[in-house]
Amino acid sequence: MAAVAVHQFAQCITCHAWSPDHSMVAFCPNNNEVHIYKLVNDKWEKVHVLQKHDQIVSGIDWSGKSNRIVSVSHDRNSYVWNREGPEWVPTLVILRLNRAALCVRWSPKENKFAVGSGAKTVCVCYYEQENNWWVSKVIRKKHDSSVTSVAWHPNNILLATTSTDGKCRVFSTFIKGVDTRESKTGSSSDPKFGEQIVQLDLSSSWAFGVKWSPSGNTLAYVGHNSMIYFVDDIGPSPLAQNVAFCNLPLRDVLFVSEKMVIGVGFDCNPMVFAADKSGLWSFIRFLGEKKESLSGPKSGSQFSEAFGKLYAQAKHGLSNDTVEPSKIQGAVHDNCINCIALLNKKGSQTKRFSTSVFLFR
Amino acid sequence: MAEVKKSVESDNAEDILTKIENKSLKIESLIKQYKFIEAIKTALEGYPPRDERCKSANWIGVHKALMAIKDVEGMLRSLDPQYYDILMKYIYRGLSTGNRTTCDQCLKIHEKLTEKAGFGCILRSLADTVNTV
């Protein structure tokens, strides 16, 4: 796998989302706006600028079937943007938050969306036809700290959240009138809104980037202690696997298939994890080529100088001259990768914190 | 009820201290026999104790094993990767002592260990505030 296309949109991108036909991408260039670019004749052109938020837009999601964009921001608001003719019309959704909103995701059926916030709550919003507005229901009591990431199970009811208290939790978001009560399929389907199904306490440090596998059988999330956790059989007795790896922590993950996950984070290079036939997950390789291996204090641009000075103390200044600040060869990103989004069934796309948007096949 | 629990805990601490002393003696004898790699493996075995006194006693033994190592690369080659994280924690404890010879040795080991285990190892030793050494 290699980067298929490289695009420079802005200095810094906070979050992004693709349109249903993948011809347009919406992102926030680290300010209070949402920019929408369209691919016209192999060139990206800015077609819309959505300006409603007062502070940085921290999350954007573009629904696949209903073609709606939801954006949430540090200004504690969220807007649902509907396409009416050539314009995008915003509808304010009152979340009743007293802290920033950090992440947002449409549910698989796109009749709800979940917002994780710094107020230790998750808001699940649904559309009320009679009053023609979006109502938010809040999951209040369970989180001990900011909710960093949310992910919907394919059944449109279970929601997984990760938080800076190090735990990953799965809740039921069954809303009467919005979700239909299915006959018991044998899985633990407690239909009460806000009920916590399971709490996973695997990481002692902040947890980020939770995602369900396409079938909903496996859950993956990352901890800030350079570990990635894979959990099967969510329920009373889940099976968890902790995979420790040698590099800097990840921020987000993506299930490319049932058995393959790509993680992105502070190493500026997407990492591929795969499960073998027995279900054991392990790190396979980096996506971008890395000419310099991790051996020696020369690895990593900022670290090499620091390590040189550190080790020079032990070697009494002998090695100081040999260490140069060297950049990782062949890495496409210069800075921390913030999030990764699926482009189509075969490919996936990553976004870069500092400049560009890259497409990987 | 709380008093009973406290006395049970201190009993356990005494037990643990005895175990640590035995471990220390074993490490010393291994060092005298020039079996440095065995010494460090013995030192890294077992969960770090909870109690502060036990931790300090444990550190003395581990410190002896660390200082005795001459061939750092060889030691790391024969060490099981599952011990990398705990070794990194002890190295940081050594670096925090500020003692010149300890720090020199710990820096040497830190360099080689980072080459082998990567930044993830450092991060895990920093992030784990529950199982400290």
Automatic annotation (TrEMBL), chain A:
It holds the Pfam family WD40. One of its GO terms (molecular function) is actin filament binding. It comes from the Eukaryota. Signal peptide: none annotated. WD repeats lie at residues 50-82, 140-172. Keywords: Actin-binding, Cytoplasm, Cytoskeleton, Repeat, WD repeat. GO terms for cellular component: Arp2/3 protein complex. It is found in: Cytoplasm, Cytoskeleton. The keyword Ribosomal protein does not apply. GO terms for biological process: Arp2/3 complex-mediated actin nucleation. Functions as component of the Arp2/3 complex which is involved in regulation of actin polymerization and together with an activating nucleation-promoting factor (NPF) mediates the formation of branched actin networks. Component of the Arp2/3 complex composed of ARP2, ARP3, ARPC1/p41-ARC, ARPC2/p34-ARC, ARPC3/p21-ARC, ARPC4/p20-ARC and ARPC5/p16-ARC. Belongs to the WD repeat ARPC1 family. This is Actin-related protein 2/3 complex subunit.
UniProtKB/TrEMBL annotation, chain B:
GO terms for molecular function: protein-macromolecule adaptor activity. This is Actin-related protein 2/3 complex subunit 5. SUPFAM superfamilies: Arp2/3 complex 16 kDa subunit ARPC5. GO terms for biological process: Arp2/3 complex-mediated actin nucleation; regulation of actin filament polymerization. The keyword Nucleotide-binding does not apply. Belongs to the ARPC5 family. The keyword Ribosomal protein does not apply. Keywords: Cell projection, Cytoplasm, Cytoskeleton. GO terms for cellular component: Arp2/3 protein complex; cell projection; cortical cytoskeleton. Coiled coil: none annotated. Its main location: other. It is found in: Cell projection; Cytoplasm, Cytoskeleton. Component of the Arp2/3 complex composed of ARP2, ARP3, ARPC1/p41-ARC, ARPC2/p34-ARC, ARPC3/p21-ARC, ARPC4/p20-ARC and ARPC5/p16-ARC. Functions as a component of the Arp2/3 complex which is involved in regulation of actin polymerization and together with an activating nucleation-promoting factor (NPF) mediates the formation of branched actin networks. Arp2/3 complex plays a critical role in the control of cell morphogenesis via the modulation of cell polarity development. Functions as component of the Arp2/3 complex which is involved in regulation of actin polymerization and together with an activating nucleation-promoting factor (NPF) mediates the formation of branched actin networks. Arp2/3 complex plays a critical role in the control of cell morphogenesis via the modulation of cell polarity development. It comes from Gossypium hirsutum.
